[in-house]
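A reminder from the course coordinator: this example appears on the midterm review sheet, so study it carefully.

Given structure:
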């Protein structure tokens, strides 16, 4: 209902070009709605994994999907957001600036604590000038939440690839490193104002097919390769670390109904994933469709 009402307002707000505040408010509201939809995808991942794994591991899988977003939020707030969208030491997106290509953001770490100063739309007065230009007419807090749920999704993708095989605390430590350092590095190359992939190679990623899904997928692939198959799967012997043609156990899913529910939740969440990436509200309807 909230999305329907919001989309109904878009045409009115777009027609009132003189009223910038209305457009800014609607842009922020839509960004928040999209963030909530993407955040709800965590429930979808949890249901899908719990439904497809064995019953004895369902509790571990659910706990892992619950805690991983908390770890992601901490890592992204501390260092990830600054590395991904912070200004560089040699540039700050001032008019007439001729900056070189950038590999990583170097300002805005820890949100300039302990004495942050905030200006228009909640943007810090220093450290995120480039981001302010790229996402004008949006609240800084709403933008941080939107990017946070994207980062959390990358970590959650890995969870499914290593389900039933990774230790709980080891996965949480890896998730902190992924969201705090690996994901922001790739994100800066593509979505940073002077990111070298975007500027030098004209690389374009609209809604995270590379930054989010490829990073999470490749991390999951490496994790699955390092952890090896589960004992009794594909004739693998965990003790000798060899494929010895052992009798393969039948691994049955615990709850296909739960997995189906998770799939539908993820389906719903993707409307926010793609729709929220449309910076201009005029294109939200077309993007979602």
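Designed residues:
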């Amino acid at each position: 209902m909230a999305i329907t009402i919001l989309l109904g307002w878009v045409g009115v707000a777009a027609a009132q070009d003189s009223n910038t505040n209305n457009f800014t408010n609607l842009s922020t509201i839509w960004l928040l709605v999209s963030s909530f939809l993407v955040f709800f995808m965590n429930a979808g991942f949890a249901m899908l994994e719990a439904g497809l794994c064995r019953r004895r591991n369902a509790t571990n899988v659910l706990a892992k999907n619950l805690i991983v977003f908390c770890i992601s939020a901490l890592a992204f707030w501390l260092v990830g957001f600054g590395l991904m969208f912070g200004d560089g030491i040699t540039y700050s997106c001032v008019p007439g600036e001729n900056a070189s290509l950038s590999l990583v953001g170097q300002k805005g770490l820890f949100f300039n604590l302990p004495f942050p100063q905030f200006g228009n739309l909640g943007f810090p007065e220093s450290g995120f000038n480039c981001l302010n230009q790229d996402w004008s007419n949006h609240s800084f807090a709403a933008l941080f939440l939107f990017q946070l749920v994207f980062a959390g999704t990358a970590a959650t993708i890995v969870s499914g690839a290593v389900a039933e095989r990774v230790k709980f605390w080891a996965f949480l430590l890896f998730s902190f490193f992924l969201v705090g350092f690996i994901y922001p590095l790739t994100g800066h190359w593509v979505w940073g104002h002077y990111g070298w992939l975007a500027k030098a190679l004209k690389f374009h990623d609209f809604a995270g097919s590379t930054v989010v899904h490829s990073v999470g997928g490749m991390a999951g692939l490496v994790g699955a390769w390092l952890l090896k198959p589960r004992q009794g799967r594909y004739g693998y012997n965990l003790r000798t670390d060899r494929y010895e043609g052992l009798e393969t156990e039948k691994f049955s899913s615990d709850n296909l109904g739960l997995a189906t529910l998770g799939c539908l939740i993820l389906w719903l969440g993707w409307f926010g994933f793609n729709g929220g990436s449309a910076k201009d509200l005029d294109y939200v309807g077309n993007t979602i469709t």
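DSSP finds ten helices and two strands in the chain. The chain has a mean pLDDT of 80.
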